[in-house]
Design a protein that fits this description.
Layout (H helix, E strand, L loop, with lengths): L1 H20 L2 H6 L3 H9 L5 H27 L16 H18 L4 H18 L9 H23 L7 H17 L8 H7 L4 H5 L1 H24 L3 H28 L4 H27 L1 H4 L2 H6 L2
Helix pairs in contact: 3-7, 3-8, 3-13, 4-5, 4-6, 4-7, 6-7, 7-8, 8-11, 11-12, 12-13
């Protein structure tokens, strides 16, 4: 009886560890901005399908991919969103693939294009993490995998999750812009992981090009991406695009100042890096959430100021 209870408790603990490795807070508060932007650019809004696919993409696809990556990395130190990642066992590898496949089934009602984009993201996640391909170990291939899977494709899936419509040039501009904005901070998260990455033989961007290349890359990619996204939004709602651009400039200046302070003090610790990522992402996620509600909820649409702002 005692051994049975211990075995049950052990399984419950393992299941909890797997859920922890989905890093749901990371998916919902850091990676959701691209999906929300896609929805904002759509003139349709089917609330039910949007909610289903939002959870599908961020829990089953992104969460499953994160767990898949954690299985192969076997990190002992901090990773994005987890200070002390729990150990993983063999069944979690299968579970991480299974929930991505379940997500693919849930994507089927959204049509061929949505399913294709979803599948492409899965492929890039596998190429990124798998030891047989290990794109994570290449500074350039890793940028391609992360940029397309969690940046460009997330915008396209968010656009189609609200309903069906033509892919305007603004959507492609936004996809490219979000990709650059997302990637601008991607090498920053590698700063506190350099020892473990080096031991695994991963030649990440931060390891390959150095600390100062990380900040120079941010100074290039972030403003270019910001301009593209602001223009894309502005093509639909001029004042909203301007507001997004102003918000982005303020956030970018603060992040740049923080990054330079880290370089001067050589304080590339986990807490400093995650503060940058969370604050930056939350600023944009909050902005896009409010804009999305204002655009599609009747209560907000009836307010004169909101109607003028969304023209």
């Amino acid at each position: 009886m005692i051994e049975s209870k211990r075995g049950k408790a052990g399984w419950i603990l393992q299941i909890w560890h797997f859920v922890v490795h989905l890093r749901l807070h990371y998916q919902l508060f850091i990676l959701s901005g691209a999906f929300l932007l896609g929805a904002l650019l759509s003139e349709n809004f089917h609330a039910g399908w949007f909610a289903v696919q939002f959870l599908n993409v961020h829990i089953l696809l992104f969460g499953g991919a994160t767990a898949y990556n954690s299985f192969w990395d076997r990190d002992e130190g901090p990773v994005g969103g987890l200070v002390n990642p729990p150990s993983m066992t063999q069944w979690m590898w299968f579970a991480s693939l299974l929930i991505q496949m379940i997500g693919l089934l849930l994507a089927l009602p959204m049509g061929t294009f949505f399913v294709g984009i979803y599948s492409l993201s899965m492929l890039f996640f596998w190429l990124y993490s798998s030891p047989w391909t290990r794109w994570k170990g290449s500074p350039l291939k890793s940028l391609v995998a992360i940029g397309i899977s969690t940046g460009c494709n997330a915008v396209l899936m968010g656009y189609y999750a609200t309903g069906f419509g033509p892919l305007y040039s603004s959507v492609w501009i936004a996809s490219a812009g979000v990709t650059l904005m997302l990637l601008s901070l991607y090498p920053v998260s590698q700063l506190y992981q350099q020892d473990e990455d080096y031991k695994r033989g991963d030649r990440t961007f931060a390891i390959s090009y150095g600390r100062y290349a990380v900040i120079h890359f941010f100074e290039f990619a972030f403003p270019v991406g910001l301009l593209m996204v602001a223009v894309a939004i502005g093509l639909h709602h001029v004042m909203l695009g301007i507001a997004f651009g102003i918000t982005g400039v303020l956030v970018g200046l603060l992040v740049n100042r923080k990054l330079k302070g880290m370089m001067e003090e050589r304080s590339d610790d986990y807490q400093s890096v995650m503060q940058i990522k969370y604050r930056t992402s939350l600023a944009f996620v909050s902005f896009l959430t409010i804009a999305l509600l204002a655009k599609h909820l009747d209560f907000f649409n009836s307010l004169p100021f909101v109607e003028w702002f969304l023209q």
